[in-house]
Each structure stands twice: as structure tokens, then as C-alpha cells.
């Protein structure tokens, strides 16, 4: 009698046992903290030796002596019928990364509860981690037999863990063996498609999902994956057909509808996209997401009045007012109504679009050279969006650049580089400002730092090549950078212009003119026009040079490149 009283007292106290500082987990599978009371059935007959093993395990756990706890639980698990003791041993073994004893505990657990899916998942994970294909197939087969409906979800739960361990290809191979054994099991082929997609083998993924759909033609999840894979490969026609088929079977499925809309828009099937939106709105006229999508499609079509009408319907919806106001502002920018655009941008006070709206407002003001209004806005943005501090600094630097305060711009960008020394955009921006300050050593250093990480960065190649051409006589080095940039982007106007300018500096004006004119046809910028005019002037074609200059100078009398040309060649009224 005293023995059973002692056991009852111990069980009532054990719920207070201390768990490990970090609760053991099975490679990401959740583990619920438990006391001894929950691990042993009250109806389980426990002899005195087992009782002491459990007491020892609890005490070892309280003292963070998990290896001792593992040994005690494992010995106890072998002597009682309750599988939960073995389960505890498995979880501690996984926590300790002790694979040998974890396998031993798993064997005990499965011998006492062979249909336990959690145990099977642990067994699969260990087998795959150790490249034990036979054990992996055996345990997956057991999962499929015991829970065919939950098999797919169970394996998907483990795929991220397998990917993290770099075992995706091995897992695919295991499922290949399973597919041979179960040729009519659609879920196996579907899982293979998912894994093939993770492995970036789009063709194989499509083949496997097609096999799944041959077995189970109306499986929406597989249809969605088929559409995603088709879209990834650029086959929008197939993606559309798959989604339309799935949508007929599940017309209320929002995800399917959203995906189909994306496919239609990406395929420029705007009329069909509008029809799909209208069909939804017939049943749900206030569906905000559909209204918003419809407005964006109208904007793509250039039907601005219709887009505005739809966006204005969203202004009374607090959750959608911000994005509606933002896009109404963008419409006004395109229509050259800056003040109306600012009013819309300023209406976006919070939400996901608030920062974008403030940035759009500053950009608009900068284009209009309303610099006196910008500084206060930038200060407000810095206080309002601390997480966007770097982007705000970049805007501040651009403001100083526009104002001709190049040293201030340089200082702001240097400050930004203290927090993010390898940031490409900051390095590039500071390099351009450094050129203005004749800090060519800084320019070269910053651009070289970009090229060290990304040798094919066309912007950096072009900027460095052009600067060496225009500001030094290091033409051989300049040619190396510009030829590389031209090979990467042969149709980029600014690169063609830089290369043409290099030819002029090398004393090849006729060849230079070919490149410069080609650049100007692609992008009629003032700097390129000034280059052409100077080359024409050097060739004695002064009349043609002056005609070109006059045509662009009328439109941009304040342009620095045109003013420089005027100062150098036309100051005597020639």
C-alpha cells in the first residue's frame, strides 16, 4: 500500500518538473512540453526499478543533464508498454543530435505504437538525413498505408526541413521508388512535382504534375501547381487553360481567380481580365480587391477615366483608400497635373503605400525644381520612417546634388556608407558626386568596389569607362570597361554614347559620330547632342553642329552640357 501511495504522490508532483532550457524539437516539428504525469498512463503497471529510472530522468532533466535523462528514459521505455516514454526519449535524442540513440528510441516507439504518424515522420527525417533510402521508403510506405488522406500534407510539412538539410534531390529519389510501387497514387507524383520545382527543374516538375492530374483530373491543388509551372516557363496559354478549368470547378476560389487575373494581365489579355472582374462584381459589387485590380487593368489599357471612376469607389473603404489615392496621384502625374497629384499623395497618411506616396511627392517636386518645399518633407520622412533611413538619405543626397551642393551630397552618402559599406546604390551615387568634386580617386574606388562583387555591372563599367575617357588620358583602361559594357548591353544608349566619346578622344571622329548618332536615335538626351555637336565642329561641320545645338537649346536653355558647349564654341557669336 505504501508503494502505490508513493507512486501517486510522485505523479502528482512531477508536473512541476523543469523542461530543458530549449525544449527538444524534432528538426522543426513541434514538441509540446510535458511532465512525467502525461508521459505515463495511470493504468500502466510500473515496477519499482522503472519508477526510479523515471525519477532519475526527471532529476537529470531539471539539472540540464540531458544525456543522463536520455539514457534513463530509453531504459524505462523498453520496460513499459506506454509509447510516450519512448517518444520523450526520441525528442531528447533529437535535441542532443544523438542519432544513434534516437534511432534506438524510435525503434522502441514504433514497436509499441506502429501507427503513430509523428514517429514515422521522425523516422523519415532521420533516414533521409542519413541517406538511408530503404528506411525512408519503408517509413513513407507506412505513412501512406496508415494515413493516405494526410500523406501529402505530412510530407510537405517535412520538405522545408529536407531542403534546409540539402536533401531535396535525395527525397525526390526516395519518392521515385515510392512512385514505382504506387503508380496510381496521385499524391506521390504531386510531391515529386513540388520537389522538382524546388530543384529548379521546371520541365520535370511539369511532367510529374501532369501524371498526378492523369490520375486525379479535378485536383485543384495540382491544377494550380500546373498553372504556376506553365507561367514560370512562359507558357501563359497553358497556365490560363489550367486555371480556367479549375475555376469552373471552384468558382468561389479567390486564389484561383487572383492567379488567373495575373496570367491574363501578364499575357496582355486585358479585355478578358476586365470581363473576369465584372463577373465577380456582379455577385459582389463591393469586392475591393477586384475593384482595385480592375482599375490597374484599365490603367494598363490607357482607359484613364474608367480607372479613376473605379479607384474613387475605393476611397470610402478605409483599408483601400491609401492605395486608391496613390494611384489617383500617379494618374495625375501622367496627365501633367502636379498639384492635383500632390493632393492625392498627401492624402496617403498611413498604411503600406504611405512611404511610396511621400517618395512620389518628393520626386514630383524635385522634377519641378520646387526645392524649398522638399527639405521639410524629407525631414518629416526621416522621423516618420526610421526603417527607411537609408532611402531617405539617398533622397537628401539627390536634393543637394540638384542644388549644386555637391559636398553636402557627398557627406550624406559617406554617412550612409558607414551603416552599409557595400551598398551598390550608395557607392554608385557617391561615385557620381565624387566626379563633380574632382575626387576621381574616390570615384574609381567606389566603382571598383561595385565591380569586385559584380564584374558585369553595366552601370559601374560605363561610369568608370566614361570618366577615364572624359577626365583622364587612360584610354586603354577606359576601352576595357566600355567594351565590356557594350558587349553586355549593346543597345543601351548611354553606353553607346560613352564608347562614341572614347573614339573621339582616340582621334577617330568619323567613327565616333556613327556611335553618337546611334545613341541619340535611341535616346535624344542633351549630353549626347552636345557630344555630336562637338564632333561635328571638329570635323568642320559647324553649320550642322550649330543647327543641332539650336534645336535642343530652345527646349533646354539651362542644361549644363549645352551651356558648356555654348561657352566653348559659340561665345564669340560664331
UniProtKB/TrEMBL annotation:
Keyword Repeat belongs to the record: yes
Sorted UniProt keywords: Repeat, TPR repeat
Q: Which domain of life is it from?
A: Bacteria
Q: Which Pfam families does the entry link to?
A: TPR_19, TPR_8
Xref: InterPro entries: TPR-like_helical_dom_sf (IPR011990), TPR_rpt (IPR019734), Ycf3/AcsC/BcsC/TPR_MFPF (IPR051685)
Signal sequence range: none
Q: Where does each TPR repeat begin and end?
A: 390-423, 493-526
**Keyword Repeat on entry:** yes
Question: Known PROSITE patterns for this protein?
Answer: PROKAR_LIPOPROTEIN (PS51257), TPR (PS50005)
Listed PANTHER family? CELLULOSE SYNTHASE OPERON PROTEIN C, TPR REPEAT-CONTAINING PROTEIN MJ0263
Q: Name it.
A: Tetratricopeptide repeat protein
Native source organism of the sequence = Methylomonas defluvii
